[in-house]
Hints:
Strand order of the largest sheet: 1-2-3-4-5-6-7-8
CATH architecture of the largest domain: Alpha-Beta Barrel
Number of helices: 9
Structural class: alpha/beta
CATH topology of the largest domain: TIM Barrel
Low-confidence stretches: 1-45
Number of strands: 8
Shape: globular
Number of domains: 2
Order of helices and strands: HEHEEHEHEHEHEHEHH
Mean pLDDT: 86
Distance between the termini: 35 Å
CATH superfamily of the largest domain: Metal-dependent hydrolases
Helix content: 25-40%
Bound molecules: zinc ion
Amino acid sequence: MPIETDCNKRLNPCIGIAVHSPAFSVRALAVLFAALFLAGCAASSAGRLAEDRPIDVIDAHTHCVFNNTPEKTSGIIQSKEEYLREMAENHVVGAIAHTGYLGDFHEDLRDRNVVFCYGVGDDIDEAQIEASLKSGKYGCIKIYLGYIHRYAYDDAYRRLYKLAETYDVPVVFHTGDTYSAKAKLKYADPLTIDEVAVDHPKVRFVIAHCGNPWIKTAAEVAYKNANVYLDLSGIMVGDLNQYPKELVEEYLVRPIGWIFNYVGDPSKILYGTDWPLVDMGQYLRAIKRAIPEEHWKAVFHDNAVKVFKLK
Ligand SMILES: [Zn+2]
C-alpha cells in the first residue's frame, strides 16, 4: 500500500494547512481561500488551452485491421489512410499495434514507426513467435486474457515470457472488460499479473486498459512491481463527442487521474488509445486533462520509448 504522506508521490494528501495554529486568523483564511479560488480559475483556464497544445505522442495501443469498414462502436473507417491521417493530425510519431488472437493480417509499418505486437491465440506456435521476434518484424507479445481461457500464469504462457526475456521485448496483457460475450472475465483480472511479474522479474509487463473496471487492482500491481506498467487505452470507447462531458470526466478523466496519483511514479504509465475504437484526437485531449502537464512528455512519449525500446 502506498504511503499517503509521501509528498513526492501523492498530490492531494500533501496540501497541508496549519488551520489549528492560533496565529492563523479568520481574515488570513479568507485571503487564502480567495487566492486558492483565483489559482484554481487560472489553472482551469490554462488547462483548457493546454489540452490543445501539440506534443509528440507515441500511441502504445492500437489495432491495424485495415478492412476499410466502419468500426461498429466509433464509426471510424478502419483503413491505413485513416490511421496515418489521425496519427499525422495528432503528432503521433510512433505507435504500437497489436495483431488479433485470430491472426489477422499484418502490414509492415516500421517505416512509420509502428511496432507490432504478436497476438497469441489458443494454439501457441512458439517457433513462429520466436522467428517473428528474432526477425524484428514483431517487437512485443500480446496475450488476450479473458478472450483466451487461460490465466496469465498458465505454463503455456510462461514459455513465452522466457522468449520475451531472451529477445528483450515486453509482454502486453489484455485485462478487464472484454469486447466478446464468449470471453471469461476471471482470466482477465489484473491481479493475476502480480504472480508472473514476481516470477519473471526481468520481463517488462504492460497491463492494457488498466484492468478497467478493476483499476485499483491494476494500479496496485503496477505500484508494487518494478517491471509492471499500465496502458491507458480503451477505458472509454466510441465517439467521445457524443457523450455528455460530465460522463467523460467521471468514467475516463477522473479514474486516470486517480490511477496516476496512486501509482505515484509517472514512468509507469503509457498513453494509448485502442484505435479504431476511439478517435486519436478525442482521446488525447481527454487524457491530457487527467495527467499533470509536467508529466506529459513521459506519459505520452518517453515511457513507451523505454518500455518498447523504440529508436
Ligand atoms: Zn486493444
